[in-house]
Amino acid sequence: MWMLQVIVLCVLAVAQAAPPQDKGLIINLNNGELCMISMQCKSSCCHRPTGLSLARCAPQAAENQECSKKTLYGTYYRCTCESGLKCEGDLSIGGSITNTNFGTCEDPKGKAATI
Description:
- The chain is an alpha+beta fold and 115 residues long.
- The chain has three helices and five strands; from the N terminus they run αββββαβα.
- Strand 1 (46-47) and strand 2 (56-57) form a beta hairpin.
- The termini are far apart.
- The model has no long low-confidence stretch (mean pLDDT 81).
């Protein structure tokens, strides 16, 4: 019995000494990897092109690209905007349910400067 304990302790010591990996199996996924919800992706966007396709991690939408405001399911048909950008568009309860709340990524600072 104590031999089993020694083996378990050795395995745990080796696991703790191993360098951390940038890639995860369930979370911290890179773009292009299969996902179920956006929390799994480094980019925070689990994207599916159609309702019947597999969802994969994708980059966030850049300025002037189509974007989703919110989703109830954790996957998007259009990704959310990059940091500092705002998704301008209509937000509705029906759109949240059907995942069709699309808008366009805009820079709120650039919009205020042109007014």
